[in-house]
Amino acid sequence: xxxxxxxxxxxxxxxxxxxxxxxxxxxxxxxxxxxxxxxxxxxxxxxxxxxxxxxxxxxxxxxxxxxxxxxxxxxxxxxxxxxxxxxxxxxxxxxxxxxxxxxxxxxxxxxxxxxxxxxxxxxxxxxxxxxxxxxxxxxxxxxxxxxxxxxxxxxxxxxxxxxxxxxxxxxxxxxxxxxxxxxxxxxxxxxxxxxxxxxxxxxxx
Length: 205
Prior knowledge:
By secondary structure, the chain is of the alpha+beta class. It has a single domain (7-204), classed as 2-Layer Sandwich (Alpha-D-Glucose-1,6-Bisphosphate, Chain A, domain 4). The protein is 44% helix and 24% strand. It has six helices and six strands; from the N terminus they run αβαααβββαββα. It has helices at residues 7-11, 29-37, 49-67, 78-84, 118-121, 159-204; strands at 17-25, 88-93, 97-105, 112-114, 130-140, 146-156. Strands 1, 2, 3, 4, 5 and 6 form a six-stranded antiparallel sheet that branches. It starts with 6 loop residues before the first helix and ends with a helix.
């Protein structure tokens, strides 16, 4: 992989399903990247996101009541996901992009997650699974603005899994789209706050 390749193109170059959200942020790249990289995903709200997330977790909550205590809400940054869940931080190129990836049977009521190391992710093809990559990129849009992109790709490892996920995607797409929109809006708002704070400090210096 060269420095000119996108991380998402390296780890999942040929997706079966894809979703992209882009916006122009009134903040420089440095602040926008930091806002995205340090985002606490549990803070993301807007539209149907909180409702969609609650509904999506209902089967797992039912499973936990029968087989163990429900998980308590925690802080979830990219680093927290990498350290404490099945998600892997595939790559990080400050201040332009980072990518997270995970494998799993996403179409099941209780998702079966599978952690795959970054060095093995691109070549992972075990039947019965999907591979999911979420990548965030922050590119200059003039001297004081940033082109922010959140890009999700999914690839399935066999035809049967593709059929199962396609049915799930058709049902879940509106909720997934809402999540993407809310992610971009939250990252952009946090970046603008960071930029305003930086400008205020500069004025006081």
